[in-house]
Task: structure prediction
Amino acid sequence: MSKSQQRQIIRERVEMLTGSEKAAFSHRICQRLVSQPELQGTKVILSYLADEREVNVDEFNQLMAQKGAVICYPVVRGESMEAYYCPQERYVLNGFGIREPERSSSILIDREAIDLVIVPCVGFDAKMNRLGHGKGYYDRFLAGMDADRVAVAFEAQRLERIETTDQDIRMNKVITEDAVYRNISLI
Result:
């Protein structure tokens, strides 16, 4: 099955979730995420600003900021992605309709300073393979980084097997409303 076919199957599953289910599942995922041991001593986290199809991690972002972590968000520039800290919380929609920090009021963060990356996904499998939207921004950004990689997803986004290429970066963990999946060989 092709990646585009896998994306279509998963999108149909996610569309069947109600808004209240997505909100409740997102809350449970954020609670699981906050309790993860790798957060001890984490100073800089690259997270994201969710759209209606993704796990909403705003609760996690706020909790970690209250604990003193710097929360930065991705900004797409051409074929690459950068991380920006947005202390004034000014966001704009990029060309894909995704909220991102307004660069003029934000601070560029060196990717080597990032301790943990919270990664959205379209789908995942038990081997910690992540299916993204198909542009490769996260894979290129994560390549060669030492930061922990944790994907968040709804159980409805799990497939038996995700098609991968050599450029796809595996996650250390995937956290859903029901489970924490770990890739023992990467931790």
Notes: The mean pLDDT is 91.
